[in-house]
Write a structure and sequence with these properties.
Shape: elongated
Strand content: under 5%
Number of helices: 2
Radius of gyration: 17 Å
Helix content: over 70%
Largest sheet: none
Structural class: mainly alpha
Number of strands: 0
Mean pLDDT: 84
């Protein structure tokens, strides 16, 4: 139910290329932050091993 609604909202947003571009940039930024967090976690684990 919720997913269908969200999908429809996304479809509506996709009609505007500028909005789509912003969503893409936001998603990329989130992915980059996520990668950094994962790297930090890895480092912490490595440090604890020593």
């Amino acid at each position: 139910e919720m997913h269908q609604k969200e999908r429809n909202q996304l479809k509506g947003r996709n009609l505007n290329p500028l909005v789509l571009r912003k969503v893409m940039l936001d998603t990329n930024a989130m992915m980059e932050e996520f990668k950094e967090v994962l790297l930090l976690r890895k480092l912490m684990v490595e440090l604890h091993k020593k």
